[in-house]
Structures are given as C-alpha cells and as structure tokens.
Write a structure and sequence with these properties.
The complex is a heterodimer of chains A (about 625) and B (about 900). By secondary structure, chain A is an alpha+beta fold. Chain A has eleven helices and 33 strands. Chain B is α/β, with parallel strands linked by helices. Chain B has 21 helices and 43 strands. In chain B, strands 18-17-19-20-34-33-32-29 form an eight-stranded mixed beta sheet, with helices on both faces. Chain B has a six-stranded mixed beta sheet with strand order 24-23-22-25-26-27, with helices on both faces. In chain B, strands 6-5-4-7-8 form a five-stranded mixed beta sheet. Classes of the chains: A alpha+beta (about 625), B alpha/beta (about 900).
C-alpha cells in the first residue's frame, strides 16, 4: 500500500485535527432542555442516580465517539489516495493499439466500428487489474500514443476521447514496433490490437517478431460490404496537353454482384455518369480518354444500392490537373510548314511569327524557335531552340558537314527526348555541333554531336545540327514530341505530374521558390506549418480531399493538390475473427474482469457515505449520542 | 401544513429527483462538461452524483428524530450533513477543472547510432547533466536513446545517467531477426524516437524535446514527423553534435554504364569519399573472382570525392555483379562502407535466325556469326516461325535464297511486323531464289526492303528452253492428268514467243507429245498436249534422259526441266543424270502430286538439279505451280560475272573494315535502290545495289543482293574479314532491345523502393490496362527472387512500392502483359532497373545533416542550437490540464462533518432554560 495523494504526514495531520475536534465536542456534554413535571425534584434525584449508574450510557457515548473518529479516519485516508502496491511480478504492461485506419470508419455495426472499438477499449480499461498499466495508441499510417503508460483510468478515458480515424491504411509494422519499444523492459508485456484485422497480406507477413511479448486481438466489425473507388487519377496527353485522360478504378468487395452509378465532376460540374455492373469481388478500371473542359479539379463519386456499402470514405475521390498556362512562343522562320503544324498541336501555345530580318513582335516570350537563323540573345526572347544552327551567331560552333546520318547515341533520360524514338530518324545532311564547357550532348551520330543543350549567360538553349526538313524526322511522331518536350522543358511544365497523392504516404509536394517553410491547409480547413527541403514539402497525409500549400513570403497563389485513399486492401473491409501475423497467431484477451480498482479513495468515500447514513439514523433514534 | 403532507411532498420530491437521475445522469458514460466564468469543468463520473439522493433520506429521518435539539440546530445539522453528502458525491463523481500551467517536461532524445562518436556521446551526457541543474522543481526530465529503435531509459534515483550506448545490453524484442545485434546501432530512426516520446510526456506539462543527433537519418522521416509533433504541442530543440568528421573512407557508389553488351569492354566507375588524405588498395571483383581486365589498384585518396575507373568486359549474358573492396585503408573508422556491390543484367548473346533456301550451304555464314558471339539458329524454309512470338525470340532474321512461294504471305506479314513494331533486324539475301528470281516481286518482303526488284537488267534477259516431263501413268487418270495438261498449257502461255518448250509424257516409256519448238506456236502446242492420255507404269529415268538429250542440244541462256509425277519409280542412275544436267547448266524442278509421290526422291533430284521441289496435294494447284516456275525462270535478273564491291556511303558497322580490299563477288540479283531514306552502302561496279538498308519502324531492313554461300560469294568466304563484316553488320542492325522496353525509374528511399514505369503507345496515348509484375532479384549474390505486384495507378503509369529485405544489389525486371481476346496474357513490354544498398546508410553519409535538424526544429516552433536554459523557459507558454478537485471536496466535507457534530453536541440556541435552572437550583 502506498499513498498517491496527500502524504502520510498530511493525512495524519488532517485526521489528528479533525479527531481532536470530535473528542472535544464529545467531552462537552449537551445540556438537555428542562421539562417541568409534578414532584420533579424527587424524581430528578432518583432518576439522576439511576442514570449516572448506568454503564451503558457511558459506553454509548464512547461508541458514538469511536464511530465519528472512524468516519474521520476514512475521510483522512481517502485524502491520501491509498493504492495497493503493485507487485512487480503481477504487474501487466499493456499497449492497446486501436486501429483508426479508413476501414474502421465502416458502419456495419451500430454507431460504426470506431465507436465499437472505443467501447471495447473502455471495457478493457474498466477491467484493468490493480497492478496493470496501460498505454493507449491509435494506429493508422503512423502510430500516435494517446496516453502514457498509466494505471489512471481517467487518463485512459480522456485518451480514448482523443481517438480520431483517418483515411489511410494501417501501418501495422510501425505500430507493433512502437508497442515493442514502449514495452521494452516492462514486466508481463502484452499488445492488444483492437481492429477489424483488414490488413494487407504483405503487412501481416512482415510484422516484426514479438519475442516474449504476448499479442491479443479484439475483433471489431461484423460484415464486409463495400464498393469503393480504389484508384483515381488524371494525366494530360504529352502531345495534346489541352486534353486529358482519367483513370478510375472501382472494386466490388461484396460477395454478390453490385450495380453502381459512377459520376465524374470537372471543376464542380458533372461531366460523366456511368452505370456499372460489377460481379462479386470484381475490380474494374475505367478510362475516360480525350476529355477536355475541366481546368482544375476533378472529382468522382459512386453510389450504390443500400446495404452494399458500409464504408463511405472510399466512395469519393479527388484529383487536380496540372495547371496549364499559355506559353508565348516566337517562331523566326522563312516558312516551315512542319514546324508550324507541330506547334498547332498544343492549343496552350501562343505562337507569334516573324520572318528573318523582320522586326520582332513586342513583348516577352517564353521560347523563341530560330529556324535556320540566329538573333542576338536578349532576355525577352526567353529560351532558344535552334533548328539547323547557322555557322555564325549561335551559342555553339559548327563542326564538319556530315551526310547520311542519324541518332546513334542519345540521352534517354533527357526530358527533351522523352517518349521519342530518335533511332528511327534518317538525316540527309547537316553539321556536327561543337559543344562548349558545361553543355550537354543530347544526341549524336557516329559523325559527331547533333543535338546539344546548354545555357549561355543564364539563357537556356537547345540546338539541332540539321534542318529537320532534310530528314524524315518531320514525318515521325518524334518531331512534335521533340518540339513540345523542348518547350515544356524550357517552361518547366513537368509531365510527370501526379494528380493526387495517396493518403498514408509521406508526400513530397513540389513547392516553388527557395523558402524553408510553408503553410498547409487540410481539407477540413486546419492549417499547419511544414518544412521544405530541396523545394519540396514533406507531409504525412492522413485525409483525402483537396489541400493547399502556401509558401511563406511568396506572393504566388497557393499550390493546390489532392489526396485519395487509393488502397485496395483498405477498401476490403471484411473483418477477420482471427489474426495471424507471420507465424504468430494473436490470442484472445483475458484477465479483464470488471473489478475493484486499485484507486481506493472512491470506495472509502462510499463507505463513509453509507456509514454516515447509519450514524444519522442511530443518532436521531437515540441509539447513539 | 400537516406533517403527513410534508412527508408526502418530501417523498414525492425524492422520487422526482431519483427519476431525473435515472433519466439524465445514470445513462451517461461520458464526462459531463461545462464552462463557468471562463473555467472549463468536467465531471468524469457523473453517475456518482446519485449518492446525493441520500440527502432527502437524511431529512426524512428528522421527522422521527428523538434528538433533543432546538429546531435551528436541527436545521443547521441537516444542512451540514446534506453538504457533507453532496461534497462526497462530487468527489466520487470526480469533478475536474481545466487549469493552466507552465511546467515543462523535457525529453532528451540522444542519437547513439554508429555514426555518433564516443566523444560526442560524452558531450551529450554532460549536456543532459547540465540541463538537470536547470530544472525547476515542478519540471520533469526524461531520456530516450535511439538508433535503429528508440529506448526509454530510466535515470537513477539521484538523476544519474545510464551509459548512453551500451553494446552489452540485450536487444529488445522486435528487432530485426538474425542480425539484430549487429544492426542495432547501424540505423537511425529519428521518427520512431519522436513517436515514442509522445507516449512519455505526462499530462499537464509543456512538451519539449531536445534532440541530440548528427541528423543522419536512415529510416523514417523526421520532417514529416516534426509537423505532427507540432500538432501534438511538442516543441523540438535540435542540438547537433559538435564532432569533428572522423577519419573515414567510404565507397559511395559503383556504377556501370547502361547498355552493356557481351564482349564489349566498358568502364566500371567507383566513387570513393575520403574525409582526409588517405591511401588504400582497391580490388574489383566480377562475381566472385577478380575482374579480368583491371582488378587491383593502389589508391591515393584526396579529401572529398575520388573517382576510380576500372576497365571490364562481360563474357556471358545474364545477371552480373561487381564488388569493390578497399583494404589497407590508412585512416578509417567503419569497415562496413569499404565495400560496394552493384549488379546489372547483361543481355545474352544475340540470336540470329538464319533461314536458308539451301540449308546444306548455310554453314558459311552460320560459322562466321558464331565466331562473332552470335547464337545462330539455321532453319530450312519449312521451319519458318509461324507466330510473332516465335519470331520475337530472335534479334536478327536472315532470309537467304528462299523462293517466295515457300514463304507464306502471313509469314511475310509477320516479318514486317517483327521489323516495324518489334525493332527486329532483317537481312534479305539473294541467290538463285532471291529477289525477282524467287518470285518476290510485288510481295510484302519487297515492300519491306530498301530495293525494288524491277531491274535495268531486264533487257538482257536470256532466252529460255524448258522441258516439261509429265507422268501419264494410270494413277494420273482423271483430274490429275487433265490438270497436268492445263499446267502445260499455262506454261506455254507464260513463256515468251522466242522461248523453247518441249512436253514429254511418260509411263513406262517416254513419248514426246510436243517436240522442242518456240512457244509462239501456242495453238499447235495446246492441241498436241490435249492428246496426252493416261495409262501404264512409271519410269522417270528414260523420260528425264530424253528431256536431257533434247534440251542439251538447243541454244538458250536458261535451260530448265520440270518433272511432274504422282508415283514412285526406280531411282537408279538419276542422280548421275541430274549431275550431268546441272553441269551443262540445266536445272531441274520436281513436282510431287499427291501423297503417293516419293518426296525424298524428288527433293533429291531438285536439290541436285539446282531447282525447287514442290509438293502439291491438290491437282488443281498444278497450273499455278507451273506458271510461277515459268515466271521465275523468265524473269531472270541475275548478273553472273566477277565484279568488285564499292562502298558508296559510310556506315558505323564498316568501321575498321576495308571493303575496297574485299575479294570479288561472282554474281548478284539486279535491283534498284528505293528513294531516300533508303541508303545504299555497297554497290556493284555497275552502280547497282549490293548492300542497302533503311529503317522500317523500330527496326532495320537490309538488302544483300548477292548470296551468302559458295556460289556468288565463294571468294568472300575466304576473305579474312568475312566474319567480322557480317558480325558488325548484324550487331548494328539487330534489335537493340529484346522487347519493347519501357523506362523504369527506381528510387530507394530509406529501405523502401519506389519503382515506376510510364507506358505510352506509339501514337503518344497512354498504354493502359496492362498487367505488370515486378520481379526483384537480390540481394546479389544469392539471387533470391520475389515478385511484387505493379498495379496501374494512373493512365499509362504502373507503380510498385516495397521494402528491401537486406543489403546488397537488387535487379528489377517488370514484365508488362496485355490480355488478348481469349484472356491470355501476351507480353507487351519489359522494364529493367537496379537499386543498390550495399550497407546501412549510417555508414554512407559522413557529414552531419544540420539542415534537417534545423528545419525540423523550425517546423515545431522550437529552435536550432538553443542555449540550454531555453529548454526550460516557458516563454509565456502555458498548457491546460485537468486538475482533480476531489481532495478539496473531501476536506470541505470533513469540515461539514465537524460542523454537523458541533450542531449536535453543543446547544447553541434555546439556552434560556439554563438561566432558569440556575436560579431554581438553590431551592432543590
């Protein structure tokens, strides 16, 4: 036994003071009200003698005093918060991992799985033994302890209120590692997993070895009805960036066929509605090709008949398209149909033309294409693409004239040659290029470099050593790809854009500028400060929806992006009754009978209340005084 | 009010309170909360308020009270007792108040991984000891050490620190199995340490974390966790270790160029980082043996990055691993980073399909290519691949001297797809059955080639003498003999007027139905053919001999015999006869009609006679066969004369070869070069194409108008550069990638690999709906293999994400399949990648990552390199916590209890009787 509340001295002091008061009060004798009767002086003396001789009367007073002192003692003891000393051999140390992953938001049980899990944990808390200590942690893509390792049921109760589900998968490995770390060196360690058990097979297989740590499983959930959007993404076509293609994958997690209606929204307006029939367990990818009309946001949603869908978090998905801005292109050419035709493929190019020797149009340009000509470099021309680089005035010197050549070597990793097949190109004549220091040879024939990129005084350029019209390049898909890739490379439009992140991953969000910090606004409107590293914000995303990232001290509009659950395993919400992790099988919980708590002060007070009720009755019925 | 009524009202009130309690409070399982004058209160066990229902009971007892107390004291006693009960009920109901405090709990997270020196840890101990001295009485200090896993460490009774890094301590449960002890300090997981700290902070304290680390993070993500820490109210203060860089040499990378081919030398490049000038010996292993070309190198290392190149060559295809080991390192701390392993998948020897019309003469080219490290599969035309999948196995396809009729149009289409779509290389070689001679005009193959088969040489076409030797035995009765006669008529119609023709029909004896005469006498010849009647046995030799006798005496540039039979005959003397015929330039083609013909015998005649053998199951096909034979003969475009080869344009494969020194060729088939981009590389002295090429789709089509054997190229076979010429030609034009190869990007983040493949169709649209599987081989050596699904995550994008199982080099190969109409998987492309993690990242990065520590601290509102007192300065911060009030209520209840006792023990009211008593007492 030890005192967790007032120290013993304070307890004894309180008892001593109160007891002294009680004793003093009992020493004082309550004078009774005199009542006048006939012959009272005679009877008074007779009765007085009889009364004084009664030992019982004395005893009653002492008993009364003792009763009062006992009550005072109980109260004083309660102040000390006495607790039964935990015997080290008996003390259980428990880490309760409460699954708050997306599948736990299913509503197949009354009030939902999360509420049911909370109730089960509350029962565990109520059944804690006098020596038991418990740490409550929630488990989703990360692991978050909600309490300390404590025997305080109140703290555990408060921790239970802080449980908040997320839209991610459960990282069981990380959670178990955390639990093992928390239990390291503790007696009778045990992990209790409160979950629907909807973990991916790989997750279960790669769970850490638990050693001597016991594992118990408290199953939650009753059925597994779900229809979900398991993937949703959009990409612009590399050749025609005004159009895009959407991928939407739906899965029927039911063991019966399901009819569902699938709706696609572009910039908030409905653009497609499709009815689908999915067989039991079927997973189907839908592709919507050559879409146009939406510029920013895409959303998808599914609806199905009641009773087939117990999880709503995966019925809606979000995506953002890379923003398109019109690039200003200046073409200086004496006439090149192939060039002009290729530039028509991208409606987001604002093309101006000028003949060699003519005055250039006013304004700034993102890219200037010089077709067999050169111009004095000036910033307003933007980046420069030289076709058939002339001998004089260009950024590179020309080497020897070459004939009948092609691309024998090329930089496959260069974004300028992405998706192209330069090995197909046959060139009649041209010149080898002489790259300067720091220039990058993107393509070369056996006779010398023919495609070079570099930078001169801060101005980027790409130079081609031959006239495309003297080759079959202009007849191939490679030609417009090369032009558009080069323009995108110059204007930094990343064709590897990801339209949505996946919740549960650490997102690396590209952030403009060189700032160190940014503000992230979550779908629920909450804001948090995130650090930037190498131009990217790192954030463990827990919720699906649209986000905004505003870089500190940057006047540009916030960057928007989307996130989705996109986890087939998490959308398979069928609960399991028995959990196997690797070679270990989780057992059932035991030893959680509702019992007297080891915090005794409450029971002491209840005893005082009951005893005082008896004392009150006995006093007023003159049993005690 | 009557007493009974008061009692009844009291009971009713009690029942009402009880009902309200049962209705509102008893069902509550959650705390009751409210705010009062800005203070937040919670009743954690609201059901315990039910104890207050005892109060009416106390009042009720008063009505039966025998106590002799003034009514005022009774009332006060009841009030005090009621307050007593009420306060105890509130205590049991656990009323708590939300209050603010500025107490601080600081948890020191100390990095004890291998990258942290003992000196730095000693500094850390001193820092923590100094911090303890700065603690206020209400503050708390805890300690967590971490490397691969975090561990909460207990301080001594007087706050003594335990040894921070104790390699003798047992490994906690959950560590990686097997090598747990070895890896215990070889990783750093800052994120896990922070997460463990969340569960150590007691309630009601400002949460501070002091992170003592070098910032070298090999697992987890501190920056992402820092943001969460801020959400939990944890401020991070980074205290980077101030330690000098240890003397260290580390192999940081070992790279090989992409596209390594068997037999081609290349450089293996090692990047070695040294913190100070040092020396070492480097050994490069290929597999388990020292690298053959360049293996041991003494190194003098300068501080910073050192690059060392080793020359190497791979002799056989397949997975190859390279391992660089440093020994004798002058200044070094960790041995783990003195070796680096990388691997690559080298394609095996290129395979060439060589289909030769005369397989017996295929050995020349096959041997030459074999010597040039090619695997050559020689086949006869009958064994041509029938599917694209079968053809796809080869990198180069040589079709030599095969007549068009032996190559089904569907196979020609396959060949075109093989070149155009799969990037295969195709060489079409001439000979007696090549180009126009083989009937290839206006075929798919002609369209595929860079030359056309309409030659200027047509005008020099020689005259033809043809003998048709027709079996008219009894078995030919009916449709066979009629169709044979039709074939004869068609042949005559095909011949030019000056050409000579003779028809000999034979049974046991030959009979000249049409004597050798110009074909211009068409009607007469047709009439004579019509007289042929069946009957008798089958004797081929006399008939063939008769034809030989007749044709050998006429003048014609081309003399040819077509023998048709449906039966078997004595073969004696025929081989010699045919040998004599071929010696005089008379060629023999045989046609076996029906299944009764002796195919081997007829094939022997055709092979020996320089002609072709046709097996014709259906007699109706006979006119077509005869017509085509005649067309081939009459469209003769062969140039048979000795001539030198002349190079007309440059080509990479001719590098190092002097074609001008090559022997003469003895013939070719005259063709014409198609317009550009067809490229003529070699030409005859007449300027006609000998070797021409152009690109077709992804592949090359190459035309060689001479032959590849000991006929026209007989001298070339003896040319010392013959093998090299063909080897380099094939190597340049063969398919460079086995299949459609899709680029894979593979990135290693911590222990996880993110692999991504973008798939685009030829027209730039996304290639969707492929089924992709990623095969991970490694760690090498050992070649453990596992498959990881690679699902489609976006239009044209396929991704996989998995954790590496160990250290070493890992080869990645993704196979992408489409489903055909019948649901079968058809390989649509492959992707290759490689990742290396030869040793824990702890030993790869040697310089502290101060930027990471700084950013993480800023993200939580903490600071970087703070003064120690700042860790315990609330700086105006407060934290709210739930302060329990139950002890206060017990004290108040105790007071009420004593007051109640006072009311019952001391008469405070109605004391007048005492004065009267005193006055009366003297009289008693």
């Amino acid at each position: 036994m030890h005192l967790a509340g007032y120290p013993l001295s304070a307890v004894l002091g309180a008892f001593g003071a109160a007891a002294a008061c009680a004793v003093v009060l009992y020493i004082l004798r309550l004078r009774r009200r005199p009542v006048a009767v006939v012959f009272s002086p005679i009877w008074r003396s007779v009765l007085g003698e009889r009364e004084s001789s009664r030992l019982f009367s004395q005893l009653k007073r002492w008993l009364s005093l003792l009763l009062q002192l006992a009550l005072i003692a109980l109260l004083a003891l309660a102040l000390g918060d006495p607790r039964l000393a935990a015997r080290s051999a008996e003390a259980r140390h428990l880490v309760v991992l409460l699954d708050t992953s997306a599948s736990m938001q299913a509503t197949d049980v009354p009030k939902g799985r999360i509420a049911a899990a909370r109730d089960k944990v509350a029962q565990l808390v109520a059944g804690l033994g006098p020596s038991d200590r418990m740490l409550l942690a929630q488990m989703d893509a990360s692991v978050t302890p909600l309490s300390t390792m404590t025997d305080d049921v109140a703290e555990l109760g408060l921790a239970l209120e802080r449980v908040r589900p997320s839209d991610t998968r459960a990282d069981l490995g990380r959670a178990l590692s955390f639990a093992l770390d928390s239990l390291n060196g503790r007696t009778r360690p045990e992990i209790i997993l409160v979950s629907d058990g909807a973990f991916a097979e790989e997750t279960r297989r790669h769970a850490p070895a638990l050693g001597n740590v016991a594992l118990s499983f408290v199953p939650v959930g009753s059925s597994g009805h779900n229809v979900a959007i398991s993937e949703f993404s959009v990409r612009r076509y590399p050749l025609d960036r005004s159009r895009y293609e959407v991928m939407l994958e739906v899965v029927n997690g039911n063991d019966t066929p399901a009819e569902l209606e699938l709706s696609l929204f572009g910039d908030g307006q409905i653009t497609e509605t499709t009815r689908l029939s999915l067989a039991a367990g079927e997973r189907r990818a839908q592709f919507y090709a050559n879409l146009a009309g939406a510029d920013r946001t895409l959303e998808a949603s599914i609806t199905t008949a009641p009773g087939l869908n117990d999880l709503g978090r995966d019925d809606r998905a979000y995506a953002l398209m890379p923003e398109r801005r019109r690039s200003r292109i200046l073409v200086v050419t004496a006439g090149n149909t192939y060039l002009e035709a290729a530039l028509l493929l991208d409606e987001y190019l604002e093309v101006s033309r000028a003949a060699p020797g003519e005055a250039l149009p006013p304004g700034r340009f993102d890219v200037t294409i010089l077709d067999g000509v050169t111009l004095p470099p000036e910033p307003r021309l933007g980046s420069l693409l030289y076709l058939d680089l002339p001998a004089q005035g260009g950024p590179l010197a020309l080497g020897k004239a070459i004939n009948d050549f092609g691309f024998d070597r090329w930089d496959e990793k260069s974004p300028i040659l992405r998706w192209t097949a330069p090995e197909n190109v046959q060139v009649e004549s041209g010149h080898a290029l002489v790259p300067g220091r720091g220039d990058r040879v993107l393509g070369a024939s056996e006779l010398g470099p023919i495609l070079v990129s570099g930078r001169r005084e801060g101005q980027a350029f790409v130079a081609l050593g031959f006239d495309p019209r003297k080759s079959d390049l202009v007849l191939r898909v490679t030609w417009p790809l090369f032009l558009l890739n080069t323009i995108n490379y110059f204007v930094e439009e990343d064709t590897t854009y990801v339209s949505s992140f996946r919740t549960g991953d650490v997102w690396q969000i590209p952030a403009p500028g060189n700032a160190e910090m940014a503000w992230l606004t979550s779908p629920d409107g909450s804001r948090s400060r995130v650090a930037l590293e190498n131009g990217k914000a790192r954030h463990l995303g827990l919720y699906a929806g649209f986000y905004e990232l505003a870089v500190e001290n940057d006047s540009r509009p916030p960057l928007r992006f989307a996130a989705n659950l996109s986890d087939l395993d998490e959308s398979r919400i069928a609960p399991v009754g028995k959990l196997e992790l690797g070679r270990e099988v989780a057992g059932e919980v035991h030893g959680f009978e509702v019992r007297a708590r080891h915090q005794l002060w409450g029971y002491l007070l209840i005893a005082v209340l009951i005893a005082s009720a008896f004392e009150w009755v006995s006093y007023h019925r003159r049993v005690t005084v | 009010m009557p007493r009974w009524l008061r009692i009844a009202l009291l009971v009713l009130g009690w029942l009402a309170l009880g009902g309200a309690y049962l209705r509102w409070l008893a069902p509550l399982s959650t705390p009751l909360v409210w705010d009062l004058e800005g203070v937040h209160y919670q009743l954690l066990e609201p059901r315990a308020l039910g104890f207050a229902l005892l109060v009416p009971f106390f009042i009720l007892v008063l009505y039966k009270s025998l106590a002799d107390l003034p009514w005022q004291q009774r009332l006060l006693s009841t009030l005090f007792r009621s307050a007593f009960v009420g306060l105890l009920a509130l205590s049991v109901a656990r009323l708590v108040q939300s209050v603010e405090t500025s107490r601080i709990c600081t948890i020191f997270l100390v990095d004890v991984s291998d990258s942290v020196s003992d000196v730095a840890l000693a500094d850390a101990s001193q820092t923590i000891a100094r911090a303890r001295g700065l603690l206020r009485s209400e503050d708390e200090l805890r300690l967590i050490t971490f490397a691969r896993r975090p561990e909460l460490r207990e301080l001594g009774a007087q706050g003594e620190l335990p040894p921070l890094r104790d390699r003798s301590r047992p490994v906690p449960a959950g560590a990686a199995p097997g090598a747990a002890e070895a890896n215990r300090y070889s990783e750093t997981d800052l994120q896990a340490a922070l997460q463990l700290a969340y569960g150590v902070f007691p309630e009601g304290y400002l949460r501070r974390v002091a992170l003592l680390s070098d910032g070298i993070e090999t697992r987890g993500d501190l920056l992402a966790e820092a943001q969460r820490a801020a959400q939990f109210g944890v401020q991070l203060y980074s205290l980077p270790f101030e330690q000098a860089l240890p003397a260290e040499v580390a192999v940081q990378n070992l790279s090989v160029p992409s596209g390594v081919k068997v037999g081609e030398p290349f450089f293996v490049t090692a990047e070695i980082y040294a913190t100070e000038p040092s020396s070492a010996r480097a050994r490069l292993f290929q597999g388990d043996v020292l690298n053959g070309l360049d293996s041991v190198r003494p190194l003098t290392l300068v501080p910073g990055r050192n690059e060392v190149k080793f020359r190497s060559v791979v002799r056989t295809g397949g997975p190859v691993s390279y391992r660089l080991e440093l020994d004798g390192v002058e200044h070094d701390q960790f041995a783990e980073n003195n070796r680096f392993l990388t691997s690559l998948d080298v394609p095996g020897r290129p395979t060439v399909l060589y289909v030769e019309g005369q397989p017996a003469r295929a050995t020349y080219l096959a041997s030459a290519l074999g010597a040039q490290q090619f695997d050559v599969d020689v086949r006869s035309p009958t064994a041509l691949p029938r599917s694209l999948g079968e053809l796809e196995r080869f990198d180069f396809f040589v079709l030599s001297d095969v007549p068009a009729e032996q190559v089904d149009p569907s196979i020609q289409d396959l060949t075109e797809r093989y070149v155009r779509d799969l990037g295969g290389g195709f060489l079409f070689a001439g000979g007696d059955a090549g180009y126009g001679l083989g009937g290839w005009s206006h075929t798919t193959i002609e369209r595929l080639l860079p030359v056309s088969m309409d030659s200027e040489q047509q005008k020099d076409m020689p005259g033809v003498a043809m003998a048709l030797v027709i079996d008219r035995s009894g078995s030919m009765t009916g449709l066979p003999i009629e169709m044979a006669k039709a074939a004869c008529r068609a042949t005559v119609e095909t011949l030019r007027g000056d050409d000579l023709v003779e028809v000999i029909a034979f049974d046991s004896q030959p009979k000249r139905f049409v004597k050798m005469q110009p074909a211009r006498y068409l009607n007469r010849i047709k009439g004579e053919v019509a007289t042929i009647q069946p009957g008798g046995g089958t004797a081929i030799f006399p008939a063939l001999d008769a034809a030989y006798q007749d044709i050998s005496v006429v003048q014609a540039r081309k003399k040819h015999v077509i023998l048709l039979t449906d039966g078997r005959a004595d073969s004696d003397g025929i081989r010699d006869l045919v040998g004599a015929m071929i010696a005089e330039g008379i060629t023999v083609t045989t046609v076996g009609l029906g299944d009764g013909s002796d195919a081997d015998f007829l094939r022997m005649i055709a092979d020996a006679g320089g002609g072709r053998y046709h097996h014709v199951p259906d007699p109706n096909s006979l006119p077509r066969i005869f017509t085509r034979e005649t067309e081939m003969l009459t469209r003769q475009s062969a140039v048979q004369e000795w001539f030198p080869v002349r190079q007309t344009s440059s080509a990479d494969f001719l590098r190092g070869l002097s074609v001008a020194g090559a022997p003469l060729l003895h013939g070719y088939v005259a063709t014409q070069l198609k317009p550009a981009p067809a490229q003529q590389i070699l030409a005859s002295d007449q300027g006609e194409p000998i070797l021409a090429r152009w690109r077709v789709g992804l592949g090359w089509a190459v035309a060689w108008t001479s032959d590849l054997k000991n006929n026209w190229a007989v001298d070339w076979l003896r040319w010392p550069e013959f093998g090299r010429f063909w080897g380099q030609l094939v190597r340049e034009h063969m398919r460079t990638k086995h299949r459609r190869e899709l680029d894979m990007t593979a990135e290693l983040v911590g222990q996880r690999v993110h692999a991504s493949v973008d798939a685009f169709a030829a027209d730039g649209v996304f290639d969707n709906d492929m089924q992709s599987v990623l095969v991970v081989t490694g760690p090498l050596p050992g070649n453990e293999r596992r498959e990881v699904p690679m699902p489609q995550t976006a239009p044209g994008r396929y991704q996989a994400d998995f954790e590496l199982d160990g250290y070493g080099s890992f080869l990645l190969r993704a196979d992408h399949y489409h489903l055909d109409g019948e649901g079968r998987r058809v390989l649509a492309g492959v992707s290759f990648g490689q990742v290396s993690q030869p040793y824990p990242g702890e030993y790869a990065r040697l310089e502290p990552d101060r930027a990471l520590l700084r950013r993480a601290a800023l993200a939580t509102g903490g600071s970087f390199e703070p003064e120690l007192p700042a860790l315990f300065e609330p700086a105006g911060q407060v934290v709210r916590y739930q302060k329990p009030l139950w002890q206060r209520f017990i004290l108040l209840a105790l007071g009420c209890f004593l007051l109640d006792l006072l009311m019952r023990r001391v008469r405070l009211f109605d004391r007048s009787f005492q004065r009267r008593g005193r006055r009366a007492s003297p009289g008693v």
